[in-house]
Design a protein that fits this description.
By secondary structure, the chain is of the alpha+beta class. The chain has 19 helices and 33 strands. The protein is 28% helix and 26% strand. A seven-stranded mixed beta sheet has the order 3-7-1-14-11-12-13, sandwiched between helices. Strands 9, 10, 15, 16, 17 and 18 form a six-stranded mixed beta sheet that branches. Strands 21-31-32-33 form a four-stranded mixed beta sheet, with helices on both faces. It is globular. Bound molecules: pterin cytosine dinucleotide and CU(I)-S-MO(IV)(=O)OH cluster.
C-alpha cells in the first residue's frame, strides 16, 4: 500500500516511513542505548506513605555501600535553592521532599553509584523516619472546610488550586430557567496513565572543563526543557545542549520536567561525571504525569424536539499533590471549554475547580489535546442522555444540532473560533458506511429476543495546533514553531524542526511537505528533530500541534527557498523572473515547457553560478505563528454485543471517519488513528489508577494497569472526509489525538445503548465485565 520514497509530488501519498528500517531492525537509538565513558547510575528513594512528616533521613549506611558516590536529600538541594522547582502550570513541585511527603512514591532521596544494581541496593539503606499524617484521596472531601491542608508552602490555606470559568453565566441561567427540557448527568473520567513502552529517563553529562552540560532526555519538548533548566539552574542556556534521542512513545508523559531529571543533573554537576537515570515501570506508573481524573456534571437545556439551547458544566479536577499539568498559562483547565463540541449551543457556562489531593501530580497527558478528551467525552455522552430523554435517535439528534457548514468560521459561546468543518457530511458517510439503518433493525430484532446489542455514536470536534502566540504560552514561552531547511549543492536537503516526534512519523511527513514544495522526492530530504544545538527553537510535539505549527513552518520555509530558487531559475533559463513557472517538479520558462531546470540544477547553481549580486547558498529559517488553532472533527460509530452470562462487552465493529483537513500521508494518519483508537478502547474498558483510603496506589504496574494486546483490540475500520483548514499553509489540521478524544464516548454510548432497555442511563469507565455483570444481575437478567 505504501508508495516509494523516490516519487515526486509526494504530498497526500502513502509514502513508506523513512524511520521504519532502523526501528524494525532494532537500530533505533533510545536513551538506554546510550552509554558514556565513566557513566554512573542514579536510583531514587521513594515514599511509602501518601502523606507523612519526615522526621529524619539517615544516609550513612547508603554512603558506605559498595560503589556509592553520592547520596542527595531534599536538605542538600535546599542548600542549593533547588529543593523545589516550578511546574509548567504556575505551581511549584518538590524535587526531593523536605518537611513532608505528599504522595506515595514521591521522590525523597537520590543515590548515585557505579552500577544501577549498586544504586538500587544502596537506596534500600537510606533510612527515613516518617510520621504519618491524615490522607486526602477524595477531591470533594479535599474541599471541605475541615480537610487537612496539604500544601504548607502556599499562602492560600485551602486545597483549592484554582477556580476557572468560561462562557456567560447569566445568559446561560436565563435559558435554563425557561427551557422545556433539562437533562443532567454526572460523568467521571477516571485517572489513567499514558504508559509509554519506554519509561522516562535521562543522562546528564556535565563537562567541568568546558562548563557545558549535555543532557540526553526522553523529551517531547527539548527546547522548552532547556529554557526551564536554564532558569532553574542558572546555567547559561548556550551551555546546555538537550538531546532527545529516539523516543519510545510519549503520549504526553514526556512533556513535564521530573524530579529525577534535576537530581541527575545535580549529581553530574557535583561529580563531574555522566549520570544515567531510567525509571522502572512502577516508577513511571506511580509518579509521572497521569491523565484525566475529572469529575464532571453537565446539564443541557433543550427544546422538546431536542434542539439544544444551553450547556452548564461543573467540574472538580483532581490534580494530585502539585499542579504539574503542562497547560498553556492562560488555561488552567486546558482547552476544556471546547465542551460545546460540534453543536450550536446558544449559550454555555463552564466551571472547573482544580484541587490538591495526596496523589501523584500530572493531569495533561495521554493523547489529551489539553483536556479535550474530557470535554468531548462529556458532551458526546450527555447528548445521548438528551436523545433518550426526548425520544429522538442519537444520530438524528446530533444532525439537528450540528453547527452547519455555512456557519464557519463559527464563534462558540465559550469563545473559540472554529476554522472549518462539515459535520453533516462526515456523519452521513459514517452512517452509510456502517449500515446504520440495518444495524438498528438488527438491534430491534435482537432486543425482541432479549439479546443485548448496542450502537454508539460520537461526532466530536477537536481543537489543536497551539498556538497563536497571542493566546498561548507555557511558562511565558510563546507557542509557535519553526523549521530550518538547507539545500546542499547536489539538491539534497536537511531540514530541522522545533518539534520532536515520538513515533508519529515526522521524518516522513515533514519530508513530504518540503519535497512537495521544492519539487523533490521524500528520499532527497532528511528531517532531524530533537537536538537543541542544531534545531531552531520550538515548543515540541504534543497536543497534536506539530502539523498545524511546524508543518506550517516547513511549508512556508520551503516556499522561502523556492522564491530564491525562482530567481536562480530565471538566471539559468535566461528569462525574467516573472516568466518562470513552477509546476511542482521543475521550473520552466512560460510557454516553453521544454526549457526546464530542476531544483537539483538550481541547488548546484546556488553554490557555483548565482546571478550577479546574489548571496550564494540555498537555505532558510521560518518561525510560524499560526493565526488560529485548527479544528479537526470526526464521526465514530461502535457496535457492541454484551454477554449476559459474563458481562463481557465485545466490540463487533468500530468505524472512525476523521476529518483532519489536507492529509499529508494517508497511511501514517491511519496508523495514528489505529493507535489512538486502541488507547481509547483501553480507557473505556480496562484502565484506571485507583487508590485506597490511605492513598496507596493500587495500579502500580502492567499486571494491574492494563495495556491492550493485539488479541484484545478490535479491528478498526477507517475513512475520511477532507475539509481543509482555511488558514494553514497546506490546509492540514492535526490528527494524532482525535481518535482518543472521540472514541471513549462511542464505546460507552454503545454499551449504554445495549443496556437501555433495562433503564440504564449511564455507566462510568472503565467498563469492566464485572460492572456490567452487576448491572445485569441487579436488573434480574440471567443467561
Ligand atoms: N499527519 C498527516 N496529515 C494530517 C495530519 C497529520 O499526515 N492532516 C501526520 C503528521 O504529519 C504526523 C502524524 O500524522 O506525522 C501526527 O501528526 P499531528 O496530528 O500533527 O500530531 P503530532 O505530530 O504533534 O503528534 C502528537 C500526537 C500526540 S499529542 C500524542 S499524545 C501521540 C500521538 O501524536 N503520541 C504518540 N501519536 C503518537 N504516536 C506514536 N507512535 N507515539 C506517540 O507517543
Ligand atoms: Cu496531551 S498527550 Mo499529547 O499532547 O503529547
Amino acid at each position: 500500500m505504501a508508495v516509494r520514497q523516490t516519487e515526486l509530488r509526494p504530498l497526500g501519498k502513502s509514502v513508506g516511513r523513512k524511520e521504519d528500517p532502523r526501528f524494525i531492525r532494532g537500530k533505533g537509538r533510545y536513551l538506554d542505548d546510550i552509554s558514556l565513558p565513566g557513566m554512573l547510575y542514579m536510583c531514587l528513594v521513594r515514599s511509602p506513605y501518601a502523606h507523612a512528616r519526615i522526621k529524619s533521613i539517615d544516609t550513612s549506611a547508603a554512603l558506605q555501600a559498595p560503589g556509592v558516590k553520592l547520596v542527595i536529600t531534599g536538605e542538600d538541594l535546599a542548600a542549593m535553592n533547588l529543593a523545589w522547582m516550578p511546574t509548567m502550570a504556575n505551581d511549584q513541585q518538590m524535587v526531593l521532599a523536605t518537611g513532608k511527603v505528599l504522595f506515595q512514591y514521591q521522590e525523597v532521596a537520590a543515590v548515585i553509584a557505579e552500577t544501577r544494581e549498586q544504586a538500587e541496593d544502596a537506596a534500600q539503606l537510606v533510612y527515613v523516619e516518617y510520621e504519618p499524617l491524615p490522607v486526602v484521596v477524595d477531591p470533594f472531601k479535599a474541599l471541605e472546610s475541615d480537610a487537612p491542608i496539604l500544601r504548607e508552602d502556599r499562602e492560600q490555606k485551602s486545597n483549592l488550586i484554582f477556580h476557572w470559568e468560561a462562557g456567560d453565566k447569566e445568559a446561560t441561567e436565563e435559558l435554563f430557567r425557561n427551557a422545556p427540557v433539562v437533562v443532567k448527568q454526572d460523568v467521571r473520567f477516571p485517572r489513567v496513565h499514558p504508559s509509554p513502552l519506554e519509561p522516562c529517563g535521562c543522562i546528564a553529562d556535565y563537562n567541568s572543563a568546558t562548563g557545558k552540560l549535555t543532557w540526553y532526555v526522553t523529551s517531547q519538548a527539548p527546547h522548552a526543557h532547556r529554557t526551564v533548566l536554564s532558569l532553574v539552574s542558572g546555567l547559561p542556556e548556550h551551555q546546555i545542549r538537550v538531546i532527545s534521542p529516539d523516543v519510545g512513545g510519549g503520549f504526553g508523559n514526556k512533556v513535564p520536567v521530573y524530579p529525577g531529571y534535576v537530581c541527575a543533573i545535580v549529581a553530574s554537576l557535583k561529580l563531574g561525571k555522566p549520570v544515567k537515570w531510567i525509571e522502572t515501570r512502577t516508577e513511571n506508573t506511580t509518579s509521572t504525569g497521569f491523565a484525566r481524573d475529572y469529575h464532571m456534571t453537565a446539564e443541557i437545556a433543550a427544546e422538546e424536539d431536542g434542539r439544544v439551547l444551553a450547556l452548564r458544566v461543573k467540574t472538580i479536577a483532581d490534580h494530585g499533590a502539585f499542579d504539574a499539568a503542562a497547560d498553556p498559562s492562560k488555561f488552567p483547565a486546558g482547552l476544556f471549554s471546547i465542551v460545546t463540541g460540534s453543536y450550536d449551543f446558544k449559550e454555555a457556562f463552564v466551571e472547573v475547580d482544580g484541587v490538591y489531593t495526596n496523589k501523584a501530580p500530572g493531569g495533561v497527558a495521554y493523547r489529551c489535546s489539553f483536556r479535550v478528551t474530557e470535554a468531548a467525552y462529556l458532551i458526546e455522552r450527555v447528548m445521548d442522555v438528551l436523545a433518550r430523554r426526548v425520544g429522538v435517535d442519537p444520530a438524528e439528534l446530533r444532525r439537528r444540532n450540528f453547527i452547519r457548514k455555512e456557519q464557519f468560521p463559527y464563534k462558540s459561546p465559550t469563545g473559540w473560533t472554529y476554522d472549518s468543518g462539515d459535520y453533516e457530511k462526515t456523519l452521513a458517510l459514517a452512517l452509510e458506511k456502517i449500515g446504520y439503518e440495518q444495524l438498528r433493525k438488527e438491534q430491534a430484532e435482537k432486543r425482541a429476543r432479549g439479546e443485548l446489542m448496542g450502537i454508539g455514536i460520537s461526532t466530536f470536534t477537536e481543537v489543536v495546533g497551539a498556538g497563536p502566540s497571542h493566546t498561548f504560552d507555557i511558562m511565558g514561552i510563546k507557542m509557535f514553531d519553526s523549521a530550518q531547511i538547507r539545500v546542499h549543492p547536489t539538491g539534497k536537503v536537511i531540514a530541522r524542526l522545533g518539534v520532536r516526534h515520538q513515533g508519529q512519523g515526522h521524518e516522513t511527513t515533514f519530508a513530504q511537505i518540503i519535497a512537495e514544495e521544492l519539487g523533490l522526492s521524500t528520499d532527497d530530504v532528511i528531517v532531524e528533530e530533537g537536538d537543541t544545538d542544531t534545531a531552531p527553537y520550538g515548543l515540541g510535539t504534543y497536543a497534536s500541534r506539530s502539523t498545524p505549527t511546524a508543518g506550517g513552518a516547513a511549508a512556508l520555509c520551503a516556499r522561502r527557498i523556492r522564491e530564491k530558487a525562482k530567481k536562480i531559475a530565471a538566471h539559468l533559463l535566461e528569462v525574467g523572473e516573472d516568466d518562470v513557472v513552477f509546476d511542482g517538479v521543475g521550473f520552466s520558462a512560460k510557454g516553453l515547457a521544454s526549457r526546464t531546470v530542476t531544483m537539483k540544477d538550481i541547488a548546484f547553481a546556488a553554490y557555483t553560478n548565482v546571478p550577479e549580486g546574489m548571496e550564494p547558498g540555498l537555505e532558510a529559517t521560518y518561525y510560524y505563528d499560526p493565526p488560529n488553532l485548527t479544528f479537526p472533527h470526526g464521526a465514530y460509530i461502535a457496535v457492541v454485543d454484551i454477554d449476559k452470562g459474563t458481562g463481557a462487552v465485545k466490540v463487533r465493529r468500530f468505524l472512525a471517519v476523521d476529518d483532519c483537513g489536507t492529509v499529508i500521508n494517508p497511511m501514517i494518519v491511519e496508523g495514528q488513528v489505529h493507535g489512538g483508537l486502541t488507547e481509547g478502547f483501553a480507557i473505556a474498558f480496562m484502565q484506571d489508577i485507583p487508590f485506597d483510603e490511605d492513598g496507596n496506589c493500587l495500579a502500580t504496574n502492567w499486571m494491574d494497569y492494563l495495556v491492550p494486546t493485539a488479541l484484545d483490540t478490535p479491528k478498526w475500520e477507517t475513512d475520511r472526509t477532507v475539509t481543509p483548514s482555511p488558514h494553514h499553509p497546506i490546509g492540514a489540521k492535526g490528527v494524532g489525538e482525535s481518535p482518543n478524544v472521540g472514541s471513549p464516548a462511542a464505546f460507552v454510548n454503545a454499551v449504554v445503548d445495549a443496556l437501555a432497555p433495562l433503564g440504564v442511563e449511564h455507566i462510568d469507565m472503565p467498563i469492566y465485565p464485572w460492572k456490567v455483570w452487576k448491572i445485569l444481575r441487579e436488573h434480574g437478567v440471567t443467561e
